[in-house]
Please model this.
Amino acid sequence: MTGKKIIKTDVVIIGGGGAGIAAGIEALDAGAKVIIIEKGAEPGGAAITSGGGCLIVGSPLQEKAGIHDTPDIAFNDWIKWGGASADEVWARYYIEHTLHDLYHWAEKNGVKWVDLKGQEGNSVVRWTRADDSGYGLMNKLIASYKAKGGNLMTSTALTGISREGDRVTGITAKSGADELEIAARTVVVATGGFNSNIDMVFEVRPELKTGRVMEGSGVGATGDGHKLLRELGGYFTHMDQIWFYVYSTPDYRDPRGRRGLAFRLVPGYIWVNQQGRRFHNESLSGGGTGGPAMLAQNPRHAWAIADRPMLANMTVADPYYQTGEKPKRDKIEELLENSPFIKKANTLAELADKIEVDQATFLNTVERYNDAIAKGLKNEPDFGKPLGASKAFDTAPYYAIQMFPLARKNFGGVKTDIRCRVLDKHFEPIKGLYAAGEVAGMAGGHINGQAGLEGTMLGPSIFSGRVAGGWAAEEAGHGQGFVGKANR
Ligand SMILES: Cc1cc2nc3c(=O)[nH]c(=O)nc-3n(C[C@H](O)[C@H](O)[C@H](O)COP(=O)(O)OP(=O)(O)OC[C@H]3O[C@@H](n4cnc5c(N)ncnc54)[C@H](O)[C@@H]3O)c2cc1C
Model:
């Protein structure tokens, strides 16, 4: 027989991903006693598998590269890109705090920022990557949390949030066969998004049920926190705003047939639809225009076409296929050979037949592209894709990797105020209850709006985690709440 174990703490945090670990560090720094519970065997969440890129404004790396950037320039880009549904208050708050309270703060916790990359919608380059991407970033933050004395309970899943009167008083959880009760002064929910629960995706986007959509967030991003927050009266907003990606193929090893594998570093590849035609500038591969372009195809899938040399450096963002940033070549070869969603042929004509597209149209598509390269054009004429990284399709075997829309990032979630207190339908805080990260639409409920400038998921998740941790500690009797230092 197993009994219920009762533990007491100041702040309990649900989820050991980007937001949860940042919340933990902040609450510990404020002097609170903290427990993080994480349902996975290892902490890190989607954040540890991520590209590790954050939108950061006015950074030393930008300065070094001679890039002039200010919070005003970034805010204008943000609102233009995200549209009317972007949360202006949270966007401004995040942007102004990225320099001191994300860049320098992360450095103090061991993180090294290494390079910058341009992303769609940004008028200057500001996507800032941590050393060894999300893997490096999160391992440093997790190590810092542990070094400060934080308690991290893995393989422990939230089952309920306790409430007495109008106050949240702790949680219940399950760890193996053991049931736990954690009594806490405040609770921070940082359980991530719901894009690894396709049923929840279809609930908010029923029109997508007609075709295959793949689960594409961290494996733990199944919407557990959403359900419990809803039961407590949390107000959810912009739930249908989901960022879809193109460059992913079904994980044939997933017995449920639901997970997608995102693959990268296939320079010069082209995407063709079932009509055998290209439909987008493949260099704009993110959720901004790439995702919508794929969703507009009929049928709603596409084929990534590559020849053998183009696949030499292919990476697959999944722990089975890489350790940190280091690809496991043998596993990637195994995928290319065994996946029923990947076709291989010795000629382009044979490939067209294997993927059942009209041979003449397909060959014409590839020929036009090869022709643009032969002419030495800077951009191909149909969609304006820069050809700098491209080569002609000329080396067998040729490959076609079938791609379906991948649900990756949730831009909507539970609404919070600027202290990350969860708001009810009257927009009043639920006492003792905080939410940060993707469960809160990355921060506040919908910080991005309908589109993100990239780096605007991980960055705001970590930042809102800090804000939530600071104020949760304050409500529990420790520290002054999150203050930070704005870059004005
Ligand atoms: C492959 C990939 C690449 C990405 N790259 C970038 C990028 O470069 N830049 C960017 O801005 N964004 C990126 N993102 C998005 C970004 O990683 C996420 O938005 C961010 O990690 C969200 O942080 P979070 O803490 O809210 O959620 P997560 O990091 O997912 O953490 C949530 C944690 O909660 C745990 N959890 C869930 N339910 C329970 C429960 N019931 N009990 C206990 N624990 C629970 C989960 O297991 C998980 O560990 C990427 C996402 C993916 C999937």
